[in-house]
Write a structure and sequence with these properties.
Elements lengths: L2 H18 L3 E2 L2 E3 L6 H7 L4 H7 L13 E3 L3 E2 L14 H61 L6 E2 L2 E2 L4 E2 H4 L5 H16 L2 H11 L3
Antiparallel strand pairs: 1-4, 2-3, 5-6, 6-7
Helix pairs in contact: 2-3, 4-7, 6-7
Length: 209
């Protein structure tokens, strides 16, 4: 056999073996998506504890994409295969605060919303009660004057004064209906006294309103 062919074949085999097992010393590694401390330790022929101690890691299960790690040992394989692994990186730490933030935000809103509703309900109830009381007092004052002026009769007449509230006939403009008497009497009292209760006070003092 030709000695040159033998030497060439040996060199070729040696080259192939060398290419398959080439090892490179690694001092620092930049963490990529999918990296884990355990896989890096296996890849660079070291241990998880060694990586944790060299980089002062609080938790060996938490590394961040882009983080630089000091790693001793040698690399015996391509790092491309580690891309399929799941890295517990910043995604976990960011998701937890997000959940906490959402919880914190929703609770006061509900509480604030409930408080606003209760306050609004309370205000509405108070306003309704006040209006009702005022209306009742006005109705009572109105009935008080009608009773003293005409005994509550819409047809009572005394000279130029006519009806339930003994209004001047000129005020009624020829319309002696109960509805018109009520309307004219209310306009007269509000414009002159401001309320039926004030009209009662005037009547009690002067005997008329």
């Amino acid at each position: 056999m030709d000695i040159k062919k033998i030497l060439l074949s040996a060199a070729t085999v040696t080259g192939m073996l060398t290419a398959g097992t080439v090892a490179a010393n690694a001092d620092t590694v930049t963490v990529k998506a999918g990296d884990t401390v355990s896989e890096l330790a296996s890849e660079y022929n070291t241990t998880i504890d060694a990586i944790k101690q060299q980089n002062s890691l609080q938790d060996a299960n938490v590394i961040v994409v882009g983080q630089t790690l000091n790693i001793g040992g040698t690399s015996t394989g391509s790092t491309a295969n580690t891309a399929t692994a799941t890295t517990t990186s910043a995604n976990t730490s960011s998701s937890t605060p997000a959940a906490s933030s959402n919880t914190t935000t929703s609770t006061p809103a509900v509480s604030s919303s409930n408080t606003t509703t209760v306050a609004s309900s309370s205000t509405t109830t108070t306003a309704t009660t006040t209006t009702s009381s005022s209306s009742s007092a006005e109705d009572a004052a109105r009935a008080w004057i009608a009773a003293r002026e005409s005994g509550g009769s819409y047809t009572a007449q005394n000279g130029q004064y006519y009806g339930k509230y003994q209004l001047s006939i000129s005020y009624l403009n020829g319309d002696y209906s109960a509805a018109n008497q009520e309307l004219v009497a209310n306009n007269y009292v509000i414009s002159r006294y401001g309320s039926w209760q004030n009209a009662v006070k005037h009547w009690q003092t002067n005997g008329w309103y």
